[in-house]
Amino acid sequence: MNTATIARAWAVTRSDGVTLGFTDHDEAIAFDGITFRPDAGLTARAVVQGLGLSVDNTEAVGLLSDSAITEIDLMAGRWDAADVRLWDVDWSAPQNRRLVFRGHLGEVTRNGGAFRAELRGLSEPLNRAQGRVYHPRCAAELGDKACRFDLGRAGYSVEGTVLEVQEGARFRLSGIVGHESRWFERGSLVVLSGAAEGLTALIKNDTGLSGAGREVELWAGLGIAPQPGDRVKLIAGCDKRAETCRLKFLNFPNFRGFPHLPPEDWLLAPQVVK
Known about the structure:
This is Putative phage protein (TIGR02218 family). InterPro entries: Phage_phiJL001_Gp84, Phage_phiJL001_Gp84_C. It comes from Paracoccus sulfuroxidans. Pfam families: Phage_BR0599, Phage_phiJL001_Gp84_N. The chain is mainly β. The chain folds into two domains: 125 residues, Roll (Pnp Oxidase, Chain A), CATH 2.30.110; 79 residues, Elongation Factor Tu (Ef-tu), domain 3. The protein has three helices and 15 strands. The longest helix is centred in the N-terminal third of the chain and has 6 residues. It is extended, with a radius of gyration of 24 Å.
């Protein structure tokens, strides 16, 4: 590879399949079906890579561009955990290239019209704790492969319309009937239409109102707040107790906790040996 013609090329792929290419060269470069644009204002910091299982890390710094990575998309979390690939490429002969980094976007910070994105290497998941926790409450997430509960079952999800938004985290909804208060607490709110379409948040409080009204409060506001008239879906919540699994979801055979495990007080109490 000719060192006088080396440029860097980035490919960033979101979870929804949208892929953007960037380069620090002054002209566009194309390979692997991706056009790497020079006008997006994305640059790379030095790549730090270690041998063995150490975590690779680097940063991407750029200017927000309406035609590339927009501030709205960043606030909405659409670039969270996006897949990232970085090549050293000969811009005069793009077939001569070397993949020097692969990972995903970590924390993204914004300041004015610029952003800085942390990049995390493929070995980062090895730092996470592994193994099963023995606890009276369920270790599974509602609807995952361990829980096996079908969230599409009638009565466990419902769609409604936003009537009012308060402080970006409290919503008054219409069109929701047949569910007692707190049914959706610890569940999810999914936005189905509008600028915030596709965003999801956890529900903190859920209160049934007269008629078909409902008031929902989120643990944290969405990056883009739904507006009156937007459609949303509420998904029932689970507090991971054995009683809830048995009575609310009728799913006790798949319960992944240990409800008969002795409490800590019993374990610490002096034992009488007969």
